[in-house]
Amino acid sequence: MKIGVCCHDAGAAEIISSYIKQKNISPLYYLSGPAIKVFERKIGCIDNILLLDIVNKSDWLLCGTSWKSDLEWNIIKEAKKQQKKVIVFLDHWVNYRERFIRNNEEYLPDEIWVGDHYAEKIAKEIFSNLKIKLIDNPYLLDIKKQLLKLGKNRVESNSVLYVCEPISELAYFQHGDEHYWGYTEEEALRYFLTSIDEIFKARLVIIRPHPSEDLDKYDWIFDEFNHKDIKIDNKKTLLEQILDSNIVVGCESMAMVVAILAEKEVISSIPPGGRACVLPYKEIKIIEDYL
């Protein structure tokens, strides 16, 4: 049977590309956006085909979900017309229903895969009429294997890694309000940066933009903060940057989960008034714990 793989966002692409590689599958691809680099990094050169072609030529389809792109939503819609089976692998732990709605029109897959028991519980509550299948998160399985090879304690400097997310864009896209969750990514980063001298005592702060963000999005920090050792950098892989850091800080990024696997100290920078961090990991601290 021929599988069609469809992804746009990096989160789902990391999971599905790991699954494809681990299962030694040779699928057809319909990729766009950050997903292309993720798949090429892990699998090699990708030959993309058109939306209608991938639905026509596939026996069934494995998709991610995107918060901004309509790619997977259109695939599900077309697959329904052609009565082709569609499975979606959900990443993260939030906004499950919203992923399948565009312009008040909802298209659901035939089956949903999740990577842990917490996600399984959420999915079963939201999609009570769909088949929900629990599969060990392939991306995190890959991370664990890499950690065994690289070692968990590689630290080159006394540094803090800050992992960014386009929080306000997602909030506006889904709810029409950049401040829907009580904070924006700029407010969270500013809250962290006002605390680094008092709490973190770090010589170096590395700010890693999200794959969907431009590198210059956070240039404003150099005007607002005098800390001499702040860098914006994503040249190394995420895992390399995590291993080279003592502490990893973010809001609700999957990168924080990777840092937990690497046995790093992990802190949420969600400022007071923002919703509590949704990541289901008790190891994650908050900045208020240090004040």
Main traits of this protein?
about 290 residues; six-stranded parallel sheet; 14 strands; about 20% strand; alpha/beta; 12 helices
Give a description of the structure.
The structure is a single chain. The protein is 36% helix and 18% strand. It is of the alpha/beta class and 291 residues long. The strands form three sheets. The chain has a six-stranded parallel beta sheet, with helices on both faces. The chain is globular and about 60 Å long.
Strand content bin: 15-25%
What is the count of DSSP helices, taking H or I runs of 4+ residues? Answer: 12
Distance between the termini: 57 Å
Mean pLDDT: 93
Rg, Å, rounded: 19 Å
Which range best describes the helical content: under 10%, 10-25%, 25-40%, 40-55%, 55-70% or over 70%?
Answer: 25-40%
Write down the secondary-structure element order. EHEHHEHEEEEHEHEHHHEHEHEHEE
Tertiary shape: globular
**Annotation, overall tally of beta strands:** 14
Order of strands in the sheet with most strands: 2-1-3-4-7-8
Structural class given helices, strands, pairing?
alpha/beta
- Poorly predicted sequence stretches spanning 5 or more consecutive residues: none
Biggest β-sheet description:
6 strands, parallel
